[in-house]
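Table 4 source record.
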Amino acid sequence: MSRDKFNITSLEVDQILNRPVRNTFIQQVEPGEGLALIYPGLRYSCDKPLLHYTTEILLDLGFDVLQLWADYDNPEFQGASQAEQTVQLIEDGKALLQAGIQSNSYSNLILAGKSLGTLTMAFILSEKLKIPKLKTIWFTPLFYLPPVSKTVLELNDPAFVAGSKADHTFDSVTVKQLPEKANIEFHVIENANHSLEVPGDPLRSTQILSSLMEKLVEFLY
């Protein structure tokens, strides 16, 4: 995809807890259809396959994309208490969302997250913020954490959820309830790991990625 169609910058985000919120803002040259925010996982940044191709698809559909590039694998974050980590996740997520919304007048909003990023999304959505027309994308959501499972099960807006039963974060109790939700498009990948890949089988892993991206395009349309 030609980057001539986009302006790639970063947004100035009010510093939270005396530290910057790193981000990349990919903006359509022509007015965008809406804004999509990408929240990465602990060791799964926005350049990894699921989030990279999700970004490419969203750009192709005419969205501006705002990616969070926070490093949650650093010693300072890892050494903090669970309460302190939660506060940082919430503040980073909210600050980036507010900066994105204030950058333009958007009528459509998409939140996409992978693993730890789905916890950020859950806290954002639980605050019942006034946001425009919404869709959400959840890759390997941390369903074993009550804030994530509760938020997804209470969603009324369209949601795309993908995970694997072989992944210990994909809580079976929550998974059983998802097919009952008409607004949720639910995809279970057999024998995949937390990156939705099959170790030792690159062909199968790329097939999973391709299939998921095809389904994601259909969901976003």
